[in-house]
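ESCALATION

Customer reports they have been waiting on this structure for their group meeting. Please prioritize. Original submission:
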Amino acid sequence: MKRTIVGISDCAASSDRDDTLVTYALGSCIALALFDPVVSVGGLLHVLLPDATLDLKKAERNPSMFADTGVPELVSRCVGLGAAKKRFFVWMAGGSAVMDESGIFNIGKRNELAMRKALWKAGLILSAEDVGGGSARTVRLKVGDGSFWVSADGGAERELKVKGRISAAGRA
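Update from on-call: job pushed to the front of the queue and completed.
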């Protein structure tokens, strides 16, 4: 079993059925996972900030840092491995108020809203989500079967299921 760690402001895509994409310490950050069940291609993005206009030079160097530039980057990497956008299952997790319980800065909520806008612009619809609250999360995407797993604050891991089942033909 292979494990690919996706760091903060990073993304990865894989067509290796033995690979598990994982990202840790999602506080106000957002993780986005894509999976095409026909070709078993998965991708994972760990977004730090909502909008590339906050720092255009950083966005040029690392599009994965921002929701609006990270989503197209992740889609491109997955499509480059043979995935088709129309077959994607899409998961989102994170966007907590871990360091901002009073809601003064609302970075988690701003990241979530920016991610929703970026998904809309990319023509992608969420299959399942686990966002908000006050817990840090860890997520895993198993490329072999397209299952997406979430744990919060070191607690028990649970599968974030989508309606229908994943099969070789796509959505059921």
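Sent to customer with the following note: The two ends are 27 Å apart (CA to CA).
Escalation resolved.
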